[in-house]
């Protein structure tokens, strides 16, 4: 999976002079804040932490608050096998897992690279979530997925399988958006391997807008350098 999403969005700023839209491109990687996954201390066989997370917080503690970075969930790598295929005590497997009763109904907050240039508008178009719904070890799809507090109708992967759940046509604006997983008491473990958002930029021509391209590109360029 390419990590060029923010760079492609930056390139889209140069479109004009009439209003144009880029095709949706993925944000990879994308910063997010969340509670760390759970593991042995919460009754798991292994640790389902976000051990690769590069922001603040203790990535080796169940449910610890993590902020200001990115890790497994937006690295562009989605699992095609069940959670137990590569789970380990180091928390480096593909899945992040939360157990109801320990880290109940976890909420993840994502930060998007909104342009500083008023001549450019960012629209967040879709989100795809890769879930485990095998039922093995009490792992299953959540009862509900909330986007900014509102439920998203969805069909989970077939029982006994893993796979994506996609939501399109979101039309979201603004830099911060939340996803919350409402867990099933009968299947208390929620295992997620990847969350991919896509978006596009629309250029809005205005007098003097060209003079603002520099700050906008600098902003997205800095985001790109942090991703590296």
Brief summary:
With 228 residues, the chain is mainly β. The protein has helices spanning 5-12, 213-227; strands at residues 25-26, 32-35, 65-69, 96-99, 107-111, 120-133, 144-147, 150-151, 161-167, 176-182, 189-203. It has a single domain (5-227), classed as Jelly Rolls.
Question: Kindly, what is the distance between the CA atoms of the first and last residues, rounded to a whole number of angstroms?
Answer: 14 Å
Class of secondary structure makeup: mainly beta
How many domains is the backbone divided into?
A: 1
> What's the SSE pattern?
HEEEEEEEEEEEH
Gyration radius, rounded? 18 Å
Q: How many strand segments? A: 11
Low-confidence stretches: 1-20, 209-220
Describe this structure as you would to a colleague.
The strands form two sheets. Strands 3-2-5-10-7-8 form a six-stranded antiparallel sheet, with no helix packed on it. It has 228 residues and is mainly β. The longest helix is centred in the C-terminal third of the chain and has 15 residues, at 213-227. The protein has a single domain, classed as Jelly Rolls (Sandwich). The chain has two helices and eleven strands, in the order αβββββββββββα. It is globular. The chain has helices spanning 5-12, 213-227; strands at residues 25-26, 32-35, 65-69, 96-99, 107-111, 120-133, 144-147, 150-151, 161-167, 176-182, 189-203. A hairpin with a 2-residue loop joins strand 7 and strand 8 (150-151).
């Amino acid at each position: 999976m390419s990590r060029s999403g923010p760079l492609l969005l930056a390139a889209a700023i140069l479109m004009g002079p009439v209003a144009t839209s880029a095709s949706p491109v993925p944000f990879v990687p994308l910063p997010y804040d969340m509670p760390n996954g759970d593991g042995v201390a919460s009754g798991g066989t292994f640790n389902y932490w976000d051990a690769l997370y590069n922001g603040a917080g203790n990535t080796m503690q169940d449910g610890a608050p993590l902020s200001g970075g990115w890790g497994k969930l937006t690295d562009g790598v989605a699992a095609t096998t069940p959670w137990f295929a590569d789970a380990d005590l180091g928390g480096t497997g593909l899945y992040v897992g939360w157990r109801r009763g320990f880290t109940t109904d976890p909420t993840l907050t994502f930060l998007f690279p909104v342009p500083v240039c008023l001549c450019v508008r960012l629209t967040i178009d879709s989100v795809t979530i890769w879930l485990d719904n095998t039922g093995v070890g009490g792992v299953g799809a959540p009862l509900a997925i909330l986007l900014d507090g509102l439920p998203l109708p969805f069909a989970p992967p077939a029982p006994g399988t893993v796979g994506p759940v996609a939501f399109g046509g979101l039309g979201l604006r603004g830099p911060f958006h939340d996803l919350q997983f409402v867990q099933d008491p009968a299947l208390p473990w929620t295992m997620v391997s990847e969350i991919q958002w896509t978006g596009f930029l629309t250029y809005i021509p205005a007098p003097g807008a060209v003079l603002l391209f520099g700050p906008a590109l600098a902003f997205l360029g800095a985001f790109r350098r942090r991703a590296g």
